[in-house]
Amino acid sequence: MARFRDREKALELRRQGKSYSQIKNILKVGKSTLSYWLKDYPLSQERIRELRDWSEQRIERCRETKRRKKEKRLAEVYEAQRRELLPFSKRDFLIAGLFLYWGEGSKRERELAISNTDPAIIKLFISWLEQSFGVSRKKLRVQLQLYEDMNVDRELIYWIRTLKLSKSQFIKPYIKRTLQSAINHKGAFGHGTCKVSLGDARLSERVFMGLRVFTHYSEGM
What we know:
It comes from Candidatus Harrisonbacteria bacterium CG10_big_fil_rev_8_21_14_0_10_42_17. The chain is an alpha+beta fold and 221 residues long.
């Protein structure tokens, strides 16, 4: 709880234009922790010039230079990977979805389901069911897991729009008796956990047998 409050305070101070050194001295947190919290919150060049302490200017400029170099490097790596991987064939997408399900999917019989906080994972799962197996979106059911201090209606609207599903496909959400503000989630997306499920015994058999093929293949490597 204290760490979450420190993070929120650090972000607030950063938005006010405070430097790393100033925030570190105020909150008494470690350098690596502060760097992680503020990695997406660089100071503007104008604000850096306004800093009175020359050493603070140097530190902020150094951090900004490193951030830009990293962004440039990642953009180049992304472009190289995009050229290498795309376009997907139908078989490529089927296999990618099987690996996704192997790692993230429910292993209960007679259903296919994935729960995740990342909307991209959920959207990929839905697209995989549609494109690889011809599943209609109308057959899907969705349940949200939210914290008791979250706005249920707002989160419902968010997921309906994000997944392009109808409200009738959402069953009653599960509300955790915990405050979201009390949880320090690294890399969280802030909209709870979304579970998308499909009740289809035959299709689940196909998927699970596909996973068994991978298992047997890996055992023989």
